[in-house]
Amino acid sequence: MFTSPRDACKRANAAPCWLPLSPTDHILYPYSPQSLRFMVAVKLDVTKEIKIDHDNVCDLWCRFCAVHALHFDEKVAIANTLMREMVAHSDAEETSVFNDYPHLGLPGAAERNKEMFAKVKHLVCDVSTADPDYDIVLDKAVKNFIVHAVNEEDEQHPILLAHLTPEENDRVARAFIRAHKMASERATVETTDIQDKVVENTGRRQYVDVKFQHPDPDVW
After folding, report:
1. Which domain of life is it from (predicted)?
2. Is the peptide bond before 166 cis (omega within 30 degrees of 0)?
3. How far apart are CA 89 and CA 153, in angstroms?
């Protein structure tokens, strides 16, 4: 179980499950402007798209824990991005993938996931970057998120893959990516109870880039 910064770093830096295994696998992951330019229509995998979010949170947490000697604003920017990514991921799953769970051999799992997400969001609401000890609360939010991520990947994803046809998997994956894009935009732009807590000491919110990117679901 990945609950420490060191474990999160190992997870984020480990070879992704979608590392090329054959001469043709490189067209799937990881995505880059160069590879996207030459891609043909391919079937997406919702479990890989979800894992991108999980890995981004782990990578951000690793970066956050490594910047104690850097400027406060940089640490805040990483914290902002962590909170945005956790909230956007939970909202995206709740409005897309979880709608199919009852028909995919996972009755009750969606509600358990939502309960975990509610706990994470509650903790995010308690994060105030004006508090010198805000990283303690953020630590709890990230650990709860990673516990969910490990459970989802180890217990739920194999069941999803066993019940989804390639076409259904592709449809759900694209729906998740679209929902994630909308949720991320809301988390960045709109003022909500959660996002009011993202940053209180600057005129505009500051973010950092995430390590892994989703493809455009409407291009292929």
Report:
1. Eukaryota
2. no
3. 14
**Chunked mean pLDDT (size 10), the chain, 220 residues:** 53 45 41 48 92 97 80 83 94 95 91 93 79 84 95 96 96 96 76 42 71 89
Q: What is the pTM of this model?
A: 0.77
| CA torsion, ordered 174, 180, 185, 191, to nearest 10 deg | 150
CB 57 within 8 A of CB 85: yes
Contact 59, 209 (CB under 8 A): no
Contact 144, 112 (CB under 8 A): no
- What is the rounded distance in angstroms from the CA atom of residue 87 to the CA atom of residue 141? 11
Measured between alpha carbons, how far is 17 from 34 in angstroms, rounded to an integer?
21
Calpha distance 157→113 (Å, rounded): 13
| One-letter amino acid of 61 | W
Supply the DSSP symbol for 90.
H
Residues in the chain, total: 220
Rounded to whole angstroms, the Cα distance separating 60 from 120 reads: 16
